[in-house]
Amino acid sequence: MRIAQIAPLDEAVPPALYGGTERVVSYLTEALVGLGHDVTLFASGDSHTRAHLEAGWPHSLRFDPSVCDSLAPHLVMLERVRRRAPEFDVLHFHLGYLPFPVFSQLDTPFLTTLHGRLDLPELRSVFDVFPRAPVVSISDSQRAPLRYANWIDTVYHGVPASLLTPLPHVQPTYLAFLGRISPEKRADRAIEIAARAGMPIRIAAKVDRADEAYFRSVIEPLLAQPHVEFLGEINETEKPGFLSGARALLFPIDWPEPFGLAMIEAMACGTPVIAFNRGSTPEVVEHGVSGYIVDDVDGAVRAVAQLDALSRSRVREQFEYRFTSRTMALRYLDLYTRLARVHQPPLLRAVAGGGHNGILGP
Question: Which intervals hold domain Glycosyltransferase subfamily 4-like N-terminal (predicted)?
Answer without folding.
Answer: 18-119
